[in-house]
Amino acid sequence: MTTIAGLPAHALLVHAIVVLAPLTALLEILCAAWPAARERFVWLVLALAAVNLVLTPVTTDAGEWLLSQRRSVSPALQTHAQLGDWMIYFSAALFIVAVALAVLHWLDGRSDQRRTAANVVVAIVALLVGVSSIITVVRIGDSGAHSVWGDGG
User: Fold this and answer.
1) Cβ contacts of 14 within 8 Å, gap of 6 or more
2) Buried-most residue among 25, 57, 73, 133 (CB within 10 A)?
3) Residues 88, 137: Cα–Cα separation, whole Å
4) Residue 128 contacts by C-beta under 8 Å, 6 or more apart in sequence?
5) Of 26, 79, 28, 23, residue with least CA distance to 52
6) Which range of residues forms the domain containing residue 39?
7) What's the rounded Cα separation, in Å, for the pair 33 and 121?
8) What is the pLDDT of residues 44-79, one digit of tens each?
9) What pTM value is reported for the model?
10) Does residue 22 form part of some domain?
11) Which residue in 122, 115, 64 sits closest to 93, CA to CA?
């Protein structure tokens, strides 16, 4: 997919990632820390993480196509492309955390020490993956904005 209605697909799809990845990350942290939220939102989180995981390579591929159309590549654009290549790993990690939350939801009816330990581990991993994913999206987006708009007003 290279264009949508004549517009570069990357410019449109990137907005989905910019919203989905941080939203998924925040909801995962919430669901990991608060079992009542997990009960309500676990399937939404899993769906958002899956959509994010599917859209990430589509978005980066569209960005690579757009990059190939340029005659010259600025250092800012090069940085953006390099950082963007890392997003699939964060999207995969967000999906894995969502699956772990779904497993915890399934185990909620059981009460044993292993479930408590699993809750703690998933909460820590959700926090680490969530925060690092948000930071990564901000870094990628900032470098993309600099490559398009320059360094200032």
Assistant:
1) 59, 63, 141, 144
2) 25
3) 11
4) none
5) 23
6) 12-149
7) 11
8) 999 999 999 999 999 999 999 988 988 888 888 999
9) 0.92
10) yes
11) 122
Asked if the structure places residue 113 within a domain, the reply is yes
CA–CA separation, 97 vs 101, rounded Å? Answer: 6
Nearest-angstrom CA–CA distance, 63 and 3: 11
HEC readout, the chain: CCEECCEEHHHHHHHHHHHHHHHHHHHHHHHHHCHHHHHHHHHHHHHHHHHHHHHHHHHHHHHHHHHHCCCCCCHHHHHHHHHHCCHHHHHHHHHHHHHHHHHHHHHCCCCCHHHHHHHHHHHHHHHHHHHHHHHHHHHHHHHHHHHHHCCCC
Domain count, the chain: 1
Which tokens sit at 140?
A: 């990628």
Q: Name which of 16, 15, 144 is nearest 84 in CA terms.
A: 144
